[in-house]
Every structure is written in structure tokens, then in C-alpha cells.
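note to self: the first set is below, dont mix up w the second
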Amino acid sequence: MPPKVVRLSVYHTETDAVINEVRKELQKTGEAMNTTFDPLFLANQLNQLGFEIVEDLGPASIQNRFFNDKSTPYHANENVHLVWAKIK
């Protein structure tokens, strides 16, 4: 049986004014967006919890992997960070 895989998708919002504005608007509707993190801290925490990081993608890597086709208007959000981890 293959190992159980956990995919985490988290946003780093402290550095981007646009996302902070979105967060403020969401809070007005009662929706909280409280998902800031330090990627190195997250990696250490996952390791301490018994996970091994399989892949760790920041915005540039996401752009290159999924949105490199110049014929589409889509692009990676500069605030998204994807981590793929599995149980050790």
C-alpha cells in the first residue's frame, strides 16, 4: 500500500497589500483569513510532526510548473505556497 500523502496549501499574506485588502474585506463578512506562515518554520514543524517534504513550491516554481503557457492569461498568485508532504 502506498504511503499516505498529505497536501497542504497555505498563503503567505504578510507581504502583499492586495491580499491584506482581500483579508480585510473577508473579515467584514465574518470570514477570517488567518493563514500567514514562514516557509522554513512550516518545514521544521512538518518534520517534527513526522512528515517528510516531497515538494515545496513557492510562487516562481508554481508559475513555471503550471502557468508557463504564454497563450493563457492565468498566472500563479504571488502569495500562494504549496507543500506536498508524506508521513515518514
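second set (the one i keep forgetting abt)
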Amino acid sequence: MNRRDALTDVFMTGIHRPTDETSNFRQAVEGVARDVLTIKKNARASASARVLSRLAEPDRVLSFRVTWEGDTGGTLYAPDGLSAEAVGWVQARKAAGENMASPPPGFGASYLEGASPWEI
């Protein structure tokens, strides 16, 4: 085993593997690590900044959905969330000073006259 392989093996022991679904991720990290580790070991700035460790972190995606939008006359409620198109429609109505009492049928939303969002 050469020095690069030994460094890679040590580095890879610190990479968490929560499920088998991450095997492609681990394989990609190992490939990059083999190329970068020897460079990293020779560059103090890269080592102290933990550059390779940061590169080995998987992306985290946060998502949420907007299920209601209120105005002075009531609340637009969409149990499955408002699509980007529906949010655009709401923004256009509000910009024009109009309420949301008549949502288009394809939005999966209903207007609850006189209701506030916390009453849903």
C-alpha cells in the first residue's frame, strides 16, 4: 500500500455511511480524496481549513410548502401546498389590491371567507 492509499483509507474512516444508498457518494469522495490528499498534506492552509472534509459533506436540501396565504377578507388554503404558479397568482392579486376569493381551479386551493390562517 502506498502513502496515498494509506492517507485515503484513514480519511475514509471518518466519512459516515448511514445507508447503502450512499455508496455512490462514498465512491466519489474516495476518488477525489485519492487525488487531493497528497496535495492537501503539502499545503498547510488547505489542511487547517479542512478543505477535503468540507468537500466530502453531502448536499443538504431543505424544502417546505406554503399551505395558506391570508388577506384581509379570508385565507387561501391549499392542503398540498401552493405551487410556484399559485404563489405568482397570489402576488399579482395582492399587488393589484385584489383579494384571493376566486382561485383558479387547477391550484387545488380554496378560499375560506373570513377565516384567519390559525383557524385552519
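remember for set 2: The helical segments are 3-13, 23-42, 44-48, 51-55, 84-95.
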